[in-house]
Amino acid sequence: MNKYRITFLPSERIFDAHEGDTILDAAMKAGVYINASCGGNSSCGKCRIKVIQGSVISTRHPKISKADYDKGYRLACRSRPESNLVVEVPIESQIDGSILKDNGRKPLILLVSDLGMLIKQRKADPPFFKLYIELPEPTAEDNISDFERLVRELGRILKKHIFSADLNVLKSMARTFRESIWKITVTLTLCNNGFRIVNVETGKKMLENYAIVLDIGTTTVSGQIIDLTNYGHDICTLAEASDYNGQIRFGDDVISRIMYCRKTGGLANMQKALGDTVNGIISQLVKKSGVRKASISHLIFAGNTTMTHLFFGLDPENIMLAPYTPVTNVYPQAIAKDFGLDLEGHVYVIASPCVSSYVGGDVVAGVVGCGMSRSEKVTLYIDVGTNGEIVLGNKDWLICASCSAGPAFEGGGIQFGMRAETGAIEQLKINPVNYEPMIITIGKAKPKGICGSGLIDGISELLLTGILDQNGKFKRDLDDSRVREGESGFEYVVASKENTQICKDIVLTEVDLANVIRAKAALYAGCKVLVESIGLTFHDIERVIIAGGFGHYIDLEKAQIIGLLPELPLERFIFVGNGSLLGTRLFSFSRRFIDEAQSISKKMTNVELSTSQKFMDEFVAASFLPHTDDKAFPGVLKKLHRYKLLP
Fold first, then answer.
1. What is the mean pLDDT of the chain?
2. pLDDT tens digits for range 140-157
3. Burial class (CB in 10 A: 0-12, 13-18, 19+), 78
4. How many angstroms separate the CA atoms of 263 and 269, rounded?
């Protein structure tokens, strides 16, 4: 992929843009302010720039006159470089030079890492695999049963002699064999006592083997459909889909849902709500990919312990009662149809094993997916989700904990919060002179809400521009229409209604800010307690892996500014996106990764934080921007002093 060097004037900031990036994308990553209030979809026409040198791909926008277009004026959101560029930012978008240059250091923004950076490729060995076989037809001399005939041929191929078959296979076997003229494709899985035959199809269908992988979160359920015949190729992920967990109507967190299960019919209602959500995602995946349902061989999911219990219809009550004991941490393979899933009768469900009541299979999958269990580096894995799971360790040892962070980073409890999908504000900068925002949305659509990365950006920018104090309160003496008193208290207008899809002002309220501060405080406190529980400090951590539903982006400096992440060198951080899906993808491709997950779930030592006074003390200390302990974030405080936001 080509890179083009863009020089922004008058700040003289230089940034390398990737082929396909817009100039607005490059400006945001370079820390250059360009007025953009529509999310980058060109409807506001405010992100004017002037191309001084070089060539761009851009069409004239109605809000740029032909005369200005001929002079080199373009909209940054509609312009893509096709050479190195020198670009001038108009005077109305310029801000104080000392802030623009910021010691010349570019912000480090992590994109979702490539799998190849985190794991070693292994030979494909899916838990359910297909073989094409041409069986000899029965004769008077060879009139053994159809099942024995199949087993005889399988034994020759696999060098094994212990086989069993599901009842639905036996029911259709005679017809399938004869309709196909004894040319069949068999789907098998390896069990403790040999191979089990789960499906028999007519003809040669070895290249039609697909899996559905799911991350079943408390707030969001995400899924992918995987082509198991293209392991290691770019096209292995055929489609993606996500939706809010339908159980939300029964409660935002796992405790409220467990409480609901105590009601008559509550557990059944909860299981059905989740099943309906999963069926909706399956429908989207099949439609987007064009895959026949008959070609799907298995479904693998990972979820926290409560979600996994609710999927299987297991009573979760004792998860929330001391001493916090789940029914099981290891789950049997089962037929998908038995749970009301709209899949063929041969499709099996595999669940990632859990560790404890509050450290679930999603974390185990993430640990496998990111490779920390195979690394010598001391690694801190942080899953920034509703339950806030944390793992610390390396290939020799692993300890874990969970700190209920709430759903704020997934959009829950935020007035205009949303999942990371098209129209979500995921990047936000604020001009410290006139407080005008510059926003970029996922898909460059008009904004309709704000996702996790946008919340991190927003709070950081509000703090750095002096709009917000360290208690998370808006300053009342600002003479600016964007900071106003709304129905639920003071708020900042991120996008005006004329520039949004929802025809409403998108705002960040003090209630929103309080929810995010509580979430980040819980995560930071959990990390600190876990690290110190084995006599280490943050500075002993060699690598920090961040997982979560932020979308495709997280600005680490801004995450440190609000006190979400420890102040460590930025090069120690890796962002893997949805770690749970990362792991379930690997499970679908190789049984060895499933075996690794089983081993990890037994190896992890769980640290219970819910009864820890030290955790509560650290939580209170972290409920501040960035923290009440000045020594924990010296770089952030230095920045605040430099911006003259602290005495």
1. 89
2. 999 999 999 999 999 999
3. buried
4. 10
Name the DSSP class of 388.
Answer: -
Per-residue pLDDT tens digits for 295-348: 999 999 999 999 999 999 999 999 999 899 999 999 999 999 999 999 999 999
Residue 227 phi/psi, 5-degree rounding, is -90, 110
Closest listed residue to residue 402, CA positions, set 385, 415, 418, 414: 385
Cα separation of 268 and 89, whole Å?
A: 59
> Is residue 323 packed enough to be buried (19+ CB in 10 Å), middle (13-18) or exposed (0-12)?
exposed
Distance CA(643)–CA(99), nearest Å, equals: 8
Q: Where are the domains of the chain?
A: 3-106, 128-202, 362-407+517-642, 410-510
- Cβ–Cβ under 8 Å, residues 133 and 165: no
Helix axes 591-603, 361-370, angle to 10 degrees: 120
**The predicted structure's pLDDT at residue 645:** 67
Partners of 133 in the β-ladder: 184
Does the structural domain 128-202 have CATH classification 3.40.190.10?
Answer: no
Q: Which CATH entry fits the domain spanning 3-106: 3.90.950.20, 3.10.20.30, 3.10.290.10, 1.10.150.450?
A: 3.10.20.30
The CATH architecture of the domain made up of 362-407+517-642 is 2-Layer Sandwich (3.30)
Answer yes or no: same fold for 3-106 and 128-202.
yes
Q: Judge contact between 110 and 556, C-beta under 8 A.
A: yes
